Amino acid sequence: MRGNDNYLIPVAEYAEEQGITRQAVMRRIKSGKLQGVHRDIDGIPMGKWFVVTDEKTTATTATTATTATTATTATTATTATTATTAQQAALAGDYADYTPFHKMDEAQLFAHFMELVDEALARSDKKMATWKLLHEAYNSGQIAPELRSLKGRRSERALRAWHKEWRETKDMYTSVHGNSSAKRGRKVTQFEQDFLLAILLHENKVSIGGAITHLKDEARIKGLDSPSSESTLRRWVNDWKDANGAAWGLARRGEKFVKEHFIKSIQRDDSTLEVGDVLVADGHVISSDIISPETGKPCRMTLIMFYDWASRYPVGASLALTESRIHILTALRAAILQLGFTPRYIYFDNGKAFKSKLFHNPEDHDLSKELVGILPRLGIASTFAKAYNARTKIIERFFKTMQDQWERFVSSFRGGSIADKPASLQRNERWMQKLYQGKSLEYQEAMDMIHQWVRHYYGGRVHSSLKGKTPWEVFSAREIPADRLINERELDFLMLAAERKHVRNEGIWLNKMRYYDEALIDWVGRPVIIRYDYADARSILVYDTESRYICQALQRESQHAFAHLSDDPVDMEKVIKENREIQRTLARIKRDTKKLVTRSKKSVDAAIAQMGKPGKQNPRTENPLFRKDVVITPPTPKYDVHKDIERMEGLVAQAKAEDEIAASKGADTDEGVAAAVGFDELLELTGIHGGKRR
To answer: 189 in the Ramachandran plot: left (φ > 0), alpha (ψ -120 to 50) or beta?
Structure first.
């Protein structure tokens, strides 16, 4: 600025040229050592102070500045080349430029302009005049016209601030982009920053406006110091959130959110896999109503699916109320049959049902409960996904596609979440409920529709990961390895669950059910091996511990507690029938046991007869271990006449009886008397006296 052949130089510029502070210049003006003047300037309410200099000094300065400008203009090409060379050298060395790509052009323009300023200031002895000329040249577009059109007009003070920051950092990104949050943070007190962060970095997800309102309320009620305006606080919070997105997300939404939105995932090369190498298994709750075959009521059923990694094609599935072992087994069987061979690996979900011992053979398995898992018997290895980490399972993306492209087209769609619920399911939406009356799918109908969509819609669409091919094309072109072939009958047997059980008189207990067969009678109290199908509980196969087949035991049916009180005659018939079976079984056991005993006795008797009768042994030498001889000879008994009389009376009675018999036959009386035996003869017969009486 010039007036009355004098030049007016701003105090700040004069202070910088002289290498002193602005306060020192003002003290010199007030003391009279320097001539100063105050001027009113538009846009500056308090006006501005200038230092008055003479024309000679100003002319010299102007000439020097003009020379510097001319030299700077002349060396523009050289400077640009030097800047480009310096940039290439920096990239080749240890220095790394972190300038964002979308800011690279602006950063290069800015660096070029700053180097022009450095060159001009280095060649000039009068910096204030040089800055004035640089300011005029920049705003007129004589130097750095691209930067001028990009950033617009700037004051000399702004250009000096740019240059100061450039000298401190020599960083193009810092000069162009800066750290807005740090700059604005200086306008917000540390207490305000800490207060807001303490509220906002919380799982309750307090809104920014709510946190600022609470801060102002606390400042008003408790007299806290909060000088910043609400708009300033809001800008600072938004800047802090943008600069610290990971910390903001972790504190408010948890680790899973940070993993999915801020942490990189492993980049995998799917071309290293062949069809059937790896199957991915997981469950998905369908967002449409399906009528349950068990309850007959509509519900959201779970789709359990085995998904081929290499072809991105679903190969086996089952619809269930929950992720149960039975339906996982059914889906695995369907997957193996559609593949035509067993997979090498199965990548399971981390759910409880998928970790069942039914499928695996852990080192600490209990042989008394379960002999071996199904997968080891099939020669299939397995591993589990990390909990709550959907990025590790490619099947999750398929489920999302299925929900968007099939489930939403079903009339009974209920929404993927509470916020996604259709309007007809909201409260007081009677008009929508009348307009859209969804019909639940039947169980078989749902399975048919899912198969049609998978085979013809999803399977026939080009997949982005298959290099222009469809999932069905890749899957149908699979090669079947000969070493992993398996027929359906062998698969069914290997997929039966196995357990060790003890047989009781009531049969075999399994899952609170009893199984019985007559062949188990001789196995009561002994261990056996049973094999059974989780999907069919009507019977079990029974083997001994050497895997020899025993029988197929059927599930027992409980009878009426007291059939006489039942109004249904079938109950009594069932009781009578089972009682007859018990009696027949008991009769068979008796018959078989009698045959066994009889046959054994005959066999022993025949063997003894062939060996001959053993000779008579001396009783004294028969058992020498317990030999006991008679030491005292017993005395001879004395004669007893009464015994002889009794014997004689008996003979007489016998003789009379014979006489009566003879008389009844018509014999003479004399003959009967003659036939009588005399007393002497009688004595002779009895042996009392050895002759006649004398």
So the answer is: beta
Encoded tokens for 4: 């009355």
The residues, ordered by sequence, that sit 6+ positions from 566 with a Cβ below 8 Å of its Cβ are: 560, 572
CA 347, CA 523: separation in Å to the nearest integer?
Answer: 42
Distance in angstroms (rounded) separating the CA atoms of residues 658 and 676: 10
pTM of the model: 0.52
Look-up of token digits 């009769």: 587
Instruction: Return the structure tokens found at 485.
Output: 């072939």
Residue with tokens 């993993």: 259
HEC letters along 560-597: CCCHHHCCCHHHHHHHHHHHHHHHHHHHHHHHHHHHHH
Question: Distance (Å, rounded) from C-alpha 341 to C-alpha 344?
Answer: 9
Task: Dig out the tokens for 362 from the structure.
Answer: 């852990």
Tokens linked to 245: 């997105």
194 contact partners, CB below 8 Å, separation of at least 6: none
CA-wise closest residue to 535 among 304, 285, 202: 304
The C-alpha angle with vertex 374 and arms to 369 and 377, in degrees rounded to 5, equals: 110
CA triple 394-396-398, angle to 5 deg: 85
Q: Tell me the per-residue pLDDT of 631-645, one tens digit each, with 9 for 90 and over.
A: 777 777 776 777 777
Contacts of 112-117 spanning 24+ positions with Cβ under 8 A: 112/79, 112/80, 112/83, 112/144, 112/147, 113/138, 113/143, 113/144, 113/147, 114/162, 114/163, 114/166, 114/175, 115/79, 115/82, 115/83, 116/72, 116/76, 116/79, 116/143, 116/144, 117/159, 117/163, 117/166
Give the length of the chain: 694
Which has the closest alpha carbon to 107: 161, 50, 37, 178? 178
Q: Give a three-class secondary structure readout of 207-255.
A: CHHHHHHHHHHHHHHHCCCCCCCHHHHHHHHHHHHHHCHHHHHHHHHCH
Q: How far apart are CA 516 and CA 505, in angstroms?
A: 9
Q: What is the DSSP string of 85-120?
A: HHHHHHHHSS------GGGHHHHHHHHHHHHHHHHH
**Max avg pLDDT among 368-377, 603-612, 620-629:** 603-612
| pLDDT tens digits for range 140-194 | 888 888 888 888 888 988 888 888 888 877 665 655 555 444 444 457 898 999 9
pLDDT in tens, 50-62: 888 764 443 334 3
Q: Kindly state the average pLDDT of the residues 572-601.
A: 89
| Rounded Cα distance, 458 and 397, in Å | 13
Alpha-carbon distance 324 to 397, whole Å? 22
Tokens in use for 368? 């008394």
CA–CA dist 241, 235 (Å, integer): 10
What percentage of the chain has pLDDT greater than the value 70?
A: 77
